TrEMBL record:
This is Cytochrome c-type biogenesis protein. The chain crosses the membrane at residues 101-122. Pfam families: CcmH (PF03918). CDD domains: CcmH_N. One of its GO terms (molecular function) is metal ion binding. Keywords: Cytochrome c-type biogenesis, Heme, Iron, Membrane, Metal-binding, Signal, Transmembrane, Transmembrane helix. InterPro entries: C-type_cytochrome_biogenesis, CcmH/CycL/Ccl2/NrfF_N, CcmH/CycL/NrfF/Ccl2_sf. Residues 1-17 form the signal peptide. GO terms for cellular component: plasma membrane. Belongs to the CcmH/CycL/Ccl2/NrfF family. The keyword Heme applies. GO terms for biological process: cytochrome complex assembly. Residues 6-148 form the CcmH/CycL/Ccl2/NrfF N-terminal domain.
Length: 150
């Protein structure tokens, strides 16, 4: 029973999608390629790295990373090449610079604006005159009495 549970756990664990024909001969370069692949997004699978994805585009990106490393690029140059080609969306963790500051700050900014608008609204409601207890006119009182008598 324990063996079956162990086998099922091993089968359920996520495995890297790197194919044997993609693996580089140099273990140091392969380790660099695997590390870079973990930080690049699969454009088909969205929130999965190209190291984990079985999509053909992810395979092409893995091969491209390995080709750039074999050409002598540093890790930063290889990632920059892919970002230049596919856009910043390919990064699983985008930089916190440039136009991304607007995206990073938009959520908290909207929360502050909504909180301020809510406080202004509530403060305005508390200052508004409460509906007064105006007595009924003689005509309205007579009509009410007639309704109650029926």
């Amino acid at each position: 029973m324990k063996r079956i549970a162990l086998i099922l756990m091993l089968l359920a664990s996520p495995l890297a999608a790197v194919q044997p024909d993609e693996v580089l001969d140099d273990p140091a370069l392969e380790a660099r390629a695997r590390e870079l692949s973990k930080g690049l997004r699969c454009l088909v699978c969205r929130n999965e790295s190209i190291d984990e994805s079985n999509a053909s585009l992810a395979r092409d990106l893995r091969i491209l990373v390995r080709d750039r490393l074999l050409a002598g690029d540093t890790d930063a140059e290889a990632v920059a090449f892919i970002v230049d080609r596919y856009g910043e969306y390919v990064l699983l963790k985008p930089d916190n610079s440039g136009a991304n500051w607007l995206l990073w700050g938009a959520g908290p900014l909207m929360l502050l604006l909504a909180g301020g608008a809510g406080m202004i609204y509530l403060r305005g409601r508390s200052k508004a005159a409460a509906p007064g207890d105006t007595p009924l006119s003689a005509e309205e009182q007579a009509r009410l009495d007639d309704i109650l008598k029926e």
